[in-house]
Amino acid sequence: MLNEYCRTLFIAFSAEIPELAWRSERRYDGTIENEGWFFAGVSLPTGQVTCLLPMRQWELMDHAVTLIAGHDPESDTQDDAIQRLVDYIRETR
Q1: Pairing of strands 65-66, 21-24
Q2: Is 76 exposed, middle or buried, given 0-12, 13-18 or 19+ CB atoms closer than 10 A?
Q3: C-alpha to C-alpha distance for 27 and 30, rounded to whole angstroms
Q4: Where are the domains of the chain?
Q5: From CA 80, how far away is CA 51, in angstroms rounded?
Q6: Gyration radius of the chain over CA positions
Q7: 31-59: pLDDT as tens digits
Q8: How high is the pLDDT of residue 75?
Q9: How far apart are CA 77 and CA 90, in angstroms?
Q10: Contact 48, 41 (CB under 8 A)
Q11: Are strands 47-54 and 37-44 parallel, antiparallel or unpaired?
């Protein structure tokens, strides 16, 4: 249930900055990693934040541009993503 909550919060956050949001059924290298899932992300000034979402939430990301392949996740660990989000929050106050 917590993962569902976090994924939904990610979608809501990205909907607030649709010009930075994207989605793709394929990884950055063009492969499909997990059948039934898609990649979504926001390209913040502080760095990329990505999320793996179930296909049943695809329509909830209609505000995002659809890419042929997702962005390269760089060093997109959870700790990196959290720091990028915190930095973004601080920069946009």
Answers
A1: parallel
A2: middle
A3: 5
A4: 2-91
A5: 13
A6: 12
A7: 887 789 999 999 999 999 999 999 999 99
A8: 60
A9: 20
A10: yes
A11: antiparallel
